[in-house]
Specification:
Layout (H helix, E strand, L loop, with lengths): L3 E2 L4 E4 L14 E4 L2 E11 L2 E6 L5 H5 L6 E2 L15 H4 L3 E3 L5 E10 L4 E6 L5 E5 L5 E5 L4 E4 L1 H6 L1
Parallel strand pairs: 7-12
Antiparallel strand pairs: 1-2, 2-5, 3-4, 3-6, 4-5, 7-8, 8-9, 9-10, 11-12
Length: 156
């Protein structure tokens, strides 16, 4: 969430989504695990402004500044085959082709050209894994794992 806009509780919205129309028809969101019902979202200039039920003044809006707005999984935009949400990838165990555990995904970096998985190994070291088909051989959300070909990391 951005800063308050005006005196009536409106807030500037800084979208972190890849889906520009993500807020069309959205009725509620979560902020700090609290549900907020949306009055409206509108385009203002190059950005978005959002208004919530019960947030009717600048001070109430200010308390939401710099908070992360999330949606329920049922409201998440549909994905094509082979696409995943970052929140589904975070926490997956990472294994090599032989089944040896390398670590677990702790973050997903959006770099522009391709995502990068931040994997922390057993010693606490960070390993950066590019989310490329040549490197990432299998993603099994239900099984909680991601399989990579470490040899391809050396080739990149």
């Amino acid at each position: 969430m951005g800063a308050p806009r005006g005196l009536s509780g409106e807030m500037k919205l800084v979208p972190l989504t890849d889906f520009a129309d993500r807020f069309d028809g959205l009725e509620e969101v979560f902020i700090d695990e609290r549900i907020f019902r949306i009055d409206y979202v509108k385009a203002v200039g190059a950005g978005l402004v959002i208004s919530f039920e019960g947030v009717n003044d600048r001070d109430s809006a200010r308390s939401l500044t710099n908070k992360l707005l999330t949606v329920d999984r049922k409201d998440a935009a549909p994905l094509a085959d082979g696409e995943f949400y970052a929140f589904d990838i975070i926490g997956l165990d990472v294994h090599d082709l032989d089944g040896t555990k390398i670590g677990a995904v702790k973050n997903v970096l959006k770099t522009g050209s391709n995502d990068v998985f931040v994997v922390v190994d057993g010693a606490g070291r960070e390993i950066l894994i590019p989310a490329l088909k040549a490197v990432v051989k299998k993603i099994d959300i239900n099984g909680g794992s991601l399989v990579i070909d470490p040899k391809m990391l050396e080739a990149i």
